[in-house]
Amino acid sequence: MSQVFTAANLSFILQGLALTLYISLVSIILSTIFGTLLAIMRNGKNKILKLIAGIYIEFVRNVPNLLWIFIIFLVFQMKSTPAGITAFTVFTSAALAEIIRGGLNGVDHGQTEAGLAHGFSPSQVFLLIVFPQAYRKMLPAIISQFVTVIKDTSLLYSVIAIQELFGKSQILMGKYFQAGQVFALYALITLIYFIINFAISTYSRKLAKKWAQAN
């Protein structure tokens, strides 16, 4: 086991973890932005924008993320890391759009009517009244989606050879052949994924519970 858990190997794995978290964080931030725009378009009164958003959301959500990684990498000839971020943004935006749309629809319509009655414009009502309330409702779900993105980054090594956490572990596997060594490496990677995702999931549940009690 000491041959596996060397300082060099642990540093190598942590480099992969850093890349996993970087790709996941950038993807979830961009996806939240684009997902919000899609949700607004789909909830809006403009039929063309509503149709475009609906087609995008339904089409993207029903095609495996693995295919989006292939398509973006091959068609657009991007470097591996930008291609991975773009693919996850494309896919996750569609998922978050429905989460955000649910949050927007969950705000009592009376809030909008009250804002308009007080002289606010529709855009001011949305930005100052509706969106802040919806944000509180949907943030735990957005955080939970972060877990999905982190887990799915493990697809990137096999598809476009990005050396994220799982990719780094696969490279190390080539150095060891004993069953105990291989098991130790997989156990370590499993533990890392579990600790990170469990911490995020726990925080998401506590946040949702806290805000539910506040309401």
Automatic annotation (TrEMBL):
Keyword Cell membrane annotated:
yes
Q: Which GO terms describe its cellular component?
A: ATP-binding cassette (ABC) transporter complex
Location of the ABC transmembrane type-1 domain: 17-204
**Pfam families attached to this UniProt entry:** BPD_transp_1
The record ties this protein, via NCBIfam families, to:
HEQRo_perm_3TM
Q: Which protein is depicted?
A: Glutamine ABC transporter permease
- Chief localization: membrane
UniProt record, GO biological process: amino acid transport
GO molecular-function annotation terms? transmembrane transporter activity
List, alphabetically, the PROSITE patterns matched: ABC_TM1
Transmembrane domains' residue ranges? 12-39, 51-76, 141-162, 183-203
Q: Which organism is it from?
A: Streptococcus bovimastitidis
Q: Which UniProt keywords apply?
A: Cell membrane, Membrane, Transmembrane, Transmembrane helix, Transport
- Could you say which protein family the record assigns here? Belongs to the binding-protein-dependent transport system permease family.
Cell compartment(s), UniProt:
Cell membrane
How this chain sits in the membrane, per its record, is: Multi-pass membrane protein
Q: Which InterPro entries match?
A: AA_ABC_transptr_permease_3TM, ArtM/GltK/GlnP/TcyL/YhdX-like, MetI-like, MetI-like_sf
